[in-house]
Amino acid sequence: MVHKHIQDSNGFKKFNLEGPFKQHRYKTAFLIFEFLLLGLEHTFSYWERTAFIDHADVIIIGSGIVGLSAALHLKRQQPQLKVTVLERGFLPSGASTKNAGFACFGTLSEQIAYLKKSSEEEVLRLVDYKWRGLQRLRENLGDANIDFHQYGGYELFMDSEKGKAEEALDQLTWFNNLLKQAIGSAEIYKAADAKIAEFGFKGISRMIFNPYEGQIHTGKMMRALLNKVCDVGVLVLNNCSVNHIANENGQVRLATSHGDFKTSKVILATNAFAAQLYPGLDVIPGRGQVLVTKPIAGLKLKGTYHFNEGYYYFRNIDDRLLFGGGRNIDFKQEETWDFGHTDGVKNSLIYYLNEVILPGQNYEIDYWWSGIMGFGEDISPIIKEVQPNVYCAVRCNGMGVAMGSLVGEEVANLAYPTT
């Protein structure tokens, strides 16, 4: 075969196939194209392949709280394991670095709502799980490293919600006695109406205080968790999307945006995005929109605050106010994998800032962002094997800070049981 270089009309060189194989020029061109594609799939050097890509015992998809907690637990229990974490974002995608930093286990109204669709045992089990998860997070990382402060939390009831407030207060003692089995105290929820004026709220009729709620700095938490897993030898690779997972020849192959990875086992820890790889999973995305003000002189608020059954939430941070929520304005619109904001939610947040939280006060909004959480009809997380040697730990129902550490440990134990 003879190859002649001929310039096209744009001056670029192209191949012209002549000679006895001219009739096979299309087949030859296809083979050349296929060869080039194969070359693109094997652009890693020997060093990259042997040090970064190949030989992982387990690959964890997602570098959020659950994924990194699973990685940390695996290395602590079985240090010889080679653990790689693949993260599709520059920073953890989803909600782990975008949540509000609430270290809480649920308002009284949320417990009442759970009980209406569940059982007494299930309500207690879930609170116990979240409480133990928060203690594990603090043990793993240390309070100073995550800026943990137990200022307590408040549930607010509007003037128009006096009926709901009375329902909650009527059941306060009953829930305190139930949850004492998890928290260790029967003084969990108590009326705090006297503080309404102190905080400067307007339009609030009743308020319930929980001294066991706290707050963290989400960014510092994730920095501390990343440092922990790196210290024990976990490899974290960012900007690597996983597009497909398949079992092949006794291994699991992951087709990614940077080529194929092969491993013995896989843990899927992408929470709200899990259904993109496994549509059968009952995980519905829910977008949470958040704002942070500029520093406010003389800010009276200290603690975590919820209203409307937890659908709205705010807290202090660095003399600023963080405020988020409003997903219940239009659940369907917020069931999305897309980050962003809607006028309806933004207007609602600003309205409550002006009329309820900071009435008559001057403030400026400095940050807007959104995070994507994973929800489902069942309020418990999904921790199971979804195909041979592929496990998932997803659907934290907006409670990733509280549940994530234990969810990660559970899926790690499922993938690699310790004897």
Give the CA-CA distance, first to last residue.
64 Å
| Rg over CA atoms | 26 Å
H/I helix tally? 13
Mean pLDDT, to the nearest integer, reads 91
Oligomer: single chain
Report the uncertain regions.
1-40
Describe the structure.
Strand 16 and strand 17 form a beta hairpin. The chain is globular. Helix 3 crosses helix 13 and helix 5 crosses helix 8. The chain contains 13 helices and 20 strands. The strands form 4 sheets. Strands 3, 4, 10, 11, 12, 13, 19 and 20 form an 8-stranded mixed sheet that branches. An 8-stranded mixed sheet has the order 7-8-6-15-16-17-14-18, with helices on both faces. Strands 1-2 form a two-stranded antiparallel sheet. It is an alpha+beta fold.
What's this entry about, in short?
With 419 residues, the protein is an alpha+beta fold. 36% of the residues lie in helices and 27% in strands.
Write the layout of secondary structure elements.
Layout: E1 2-7, E2 13-18, H1 25-41, H2 46-53, E3 56-61, H3 65-77, E4 83-86, E5 102-103, H4 108-117, H5 120-141, H6 143-146, E6 153-158, H7 162-170, H8 172-183, E7 190-191, H9 195-199, E8 204-210, E9 214-215, H10 218-231, E10 235-237, E11 242-248, E12 251-256, E13 259-268, E14 284-293, E15 304-307, E16 312-317, E17 320-325, H11 331-334, H12 343-357, E18 365-375, E19 382-387, E20 390-394, H13 400-415
Parallel strand pairs: 3-4, 3-13, 4-10, 6-15, 13-20
Antiparallel strand pairs: 1-2, 5-9, 6-8, 7-8, 11-12, 12-13, 14-17, 14-18, 15-16, 16-17, 19-20
Helix pairs in contact: 3-10, 3-13, 5-8, 5-13
Q: Which keywords apply here?
A:
single chain; 419 residues; alpha+beta; eight-stranded mixed β-sheet; 13 helices; globular; disordered N terminus
